[in-house]
Amino acid sequence: MAANPLDHAKQAVRTQVWDALAAADAVHDASVHGRIPNFKGAEEAAARLAGLPAWGRADFVKAVPDKAQFPVRVRALEQRKTVYMAVPKLATLEPFYLLDPATLTVPPAEAATSRTAAAIAPTVEVDALRPLDLIVLGSVAVNRDGARIGKGAGYSDIEFALLTEAGLVTPTTLVVTTVHALQVTKTPIPTSEHDVSVDLIVTPDQTFVCPNPHRPSGIHWPDLTAEKIAAIPALAARHIA
User: If you ran DSSP here, which 8-state letter would residue 184 be given?
Assistant: First the structure.
């Protein structure tokens, strides 16, 4: 199936940012293309995020499993915050790992890796999560309006929609992305109903507050193919219901 104009426009922004990061030697991986950038300065961005009052107030954090956000997950666990992390591709009916500092059997720096979390953390259904104080997203590109794009799979947006329908994303839930400064683009980012905007962008050196970020009200079924619904059990269960 041919990509639609929206997909083409998003991919053009991704390529622009990936190329800029590669040219600046701003990532740890040999190739940045096709992935969430594991950017240099991620530790500093995590430290900046951890210095914000909203971070201090957060007890329940949903974080992506990407390498760039590893320092954020470590800090959250070290500071006794409960962390939920998605199972790869949301491929099980219990699509989130529960990382509870009170029950961890390994240090936070081990538990926060996606591989160790998969080995030691119980998985939980969407309805078993607690209301979220903070959601941390990975991004390929983001602009000052808060519009963001990932690597193109769309799982972060589906997670957000599932959590919203379950009442776990509240008006006080803060949505954040940590990125390299080169990922903050002035290029317009096209969005659809399912796309989640962020409240805050945190780079190693700056924090940007985004005006009027877009939040989906729930699952926008017309955006999802039958194949996508069938591949995500938590989606399929709600679609049938």
Answer: B
